[in-house]
Amino acid sequence: MKVIIADDELFERKAITKIIQTECTDVEVIGEAPNGRVAIEKATQLKPDLILMDIKMPGIDGVEAVKQIKQLDPDIKFIMVSAFNTFEYAKEVMQQGVKEYILKPSRKADILAAIDRVKAEIVQERRQANAQTELKNRMKELLVLAQKEGITSINEDHPHSTELWKNNQLHGLLSKAKKYIDLRYYESLTLEEVAEYVELSPYHFSKLFKEKIGVTFIDYLTTVRVDHAKKEMDDPSKSLKEICYSVGYKDPNYFSRVFKKYTGMSPSEYRSITLK
After folding, report:
1. For domain 2-124, is the CATH number 3.40.1190.10?
2. What element of type H or E holds 22?
3. pLDDT tens digits for 234-267?
4. Domain 158-276 in CATH: superfamily?
């Protein structure tokens, strides 16, 4: 997390910087500002995640600086620092969406606790933003598929009205993927290849497969290969090495380890039981 310290007292800036550098391994002080005007300039240039802003500074004060910075970048967070414990100051900054307010002289524990709260808020907001982006990407992929099938009634702004279609579409895509694996298990199949076959990104295909099928792509492929290997072991004319190659493995030793992991027995142990 990138931080700017804005305070007209040099000692206060250096003290807070020292606390952060000593106690916060994942927080970097990227700039200092002796007044509101410089704070606005630094915020524009350096794009911090957080600014510790003194309220009473010469020229542009902290409250006005917050207002201007919020207009430039509403995502920047603030911790207000003030020697004045008055409701009016707190109310003004709260109206700008500022949640953290600590008093001078600033105690180390108060500074660190406030930074931790802001950090947690930033992490949560980024997770939500990533989830929204992922949802939009999924929707776009489904819209492309819908257009290919001639379906024109999908409305991106009303996802609930298309939930049934989406579920049916996903079921169809995953069934198509499973069938592809079932038919080509003996080849050097990759997740990327199957994802491309069903026209999804590898990331979304992997996530959907695990969510809907209940196992990962590689676990499903391995289970299919092991099941086919079991069937082929019923034929005593086939060697274990031949069976290994016929179900998609190139290394008999690796095949043996995988088979034992999934069945609890080595290939030779399993065969000795089935051929009795």
Report:
1. no
2. helix 10-23
3. 888 889 999 999 999 999 999 999 999 999 999 9
4. Homeodomain-like (1.10.10.60)
